[in-house]
Give the backbone structure.
Amino acid sequence: MNIAAKPPLTIRLCGPRGFCAGVDRAIQIVVLALKSYGAPVYVRHEIVHNRYVVEGLEAKGAVFVEELNEIPEEHRAQPVVFSAHGVPKSVPEDASARNLFYLDATCPLVSKVHKQAMRHNKLGRHVVLIGHAGHPEVIGTMGQLPEGSVSLIETVEDADVYQPADPDNLGYVTQTTLSVDDTAGVITRLHERFPNLTAPAADSICYATTNRQEVVKQAAPGCDLFIIVGAPNSSNSKRLVEVALRAGAKKSLLVQRASELDWDEIGPISTLGLSAGASAPEVIVNEIIEAFRARFDAKVELAETVQENEHFLVNRELRNIELTHEDMAWVNG
């Protein structure tokens, strides 16, 4: 197909998009551990919710396990990394009991939520956690406190029927990757029912989630299609699809790779919105752009709200290991 035959397309490329500082740090920890200690490096659960990242690390020598008892006896001197989503207190306790060397890649902003929940508990408040049941981050946060001291609320409807033992002694925290608007509705309803509900010392929804939702809101009006690069088990990516639709995109899709694009379903479009969840690599964003350029006379316009400069240090044990551009080129391009 020659250039003249390609229909014009404007791609509104969102910024910020893709990796947040916590995800970048978690992946760096595994890469640096492999450089420092050699393969295998074990990782409990997916380091982040992205299949491309998991498979890329597996190719480098990482071994993903669901539980610590899957690590063979002969490899117990090798490091095991805990995912960016955080883990219950019982996991590092189990690792210590097994004499395992572990590296905690929990995002510092998730750790902050853990501390906020523990502070509520220390001050005698029952903790209300707003989040999605079964999500690793929720499991990790609930696992910081004694059983029965946390109640999970997912929706406004849950808030309507929630019956705490002591309505005047509640404190809430939230999962870091929720929809800002949805969460505000849940918090408002809880405050209406429980006026003495205590907020955390700082907002629990992380800066990256908020920033990515905000730019999608601004870019979505007038888009024939809005593509979010991300995994189906990525909470923040799924929220971006919802945000795009609410903000005015005619259609929104969650896509893991360019190979998933159904061109018959996409049909004729003139304006495409494009963003990526916090665990989606930039190389896949570029892959999606090139797939559209092969079929359209595409012009990329940057839709940017803020620039992110956050950087989280890796574990002390790894800080003397050099991390090069080539080490991360497989995800960053």
Notes: The mean pLDDT is 96. The longest strand covers residues 8-15. The two ends are 27 Å apart (CA to CA).
